[in-house]
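Schema walk-through. Below, the input block comes first and the output block second. Nothing else is stored per chain. Lengths vary across the set, and this one has 216 residues.
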Amino acid sequence: MALGIFKYGNKSYSPKKLLADSTKNGTEEAKPCQESMIENQKSTIQNQNLIYHWYALYTKSRQEKKVYQLLQEQNIESYLPLEKKIKQWSDRKKKVEEPMIRSYVFVKTSEKEYYDILNTNGAVRYVTFEGKAAAIPDWQIEAMKRINEHHIHHFFTEEKYHQGDQVIISEGPLKGFEGEIIKDPEGKQKVIIRISNIGYSLVIESPLVFLQKQRN
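--- output ---
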């Protein structure tokens, strides 16, 4: 069957030419679309290869909450342990939330967000060890979160305790976490969880029946 010539206005078109033009235009439109897909795939692969760790971010004095809020706005996973305290003024009392560890916010980041975090208003520097940002194990951050969530009596201290017996907490909200047995100045036995690289320890009270000695 012969293919005729189509006319539109003063111009004539053959089916062969129309097909060629259509194929050419489709290819040109598909090319940038394919390039975009390739770039998205590369970005996805790069993000999949990123390694995230928790770090301690040192902040300007009394700007912990401000820095934490700005990090949240950047969708950066962060943690600011707070405690409620009663503030006394001459004419009134007020319950306020204050940082448990002054001038620190904890952030979970990879190389991708590393410098963006440092550029956050109020941030000063990462806590470092041998010139590199010092990672904090996930379980130590999780321990702080659980202690806050379950209102377990505790306090943070910079006091340096002697190495004690290594124990695992076997019952309660902190089941499975590791710590050390120490004696406080009053001679009472307590458990400490050392927070890596920032010079602070988390001290909690835990019944001895909840503790198991670690085996070497």
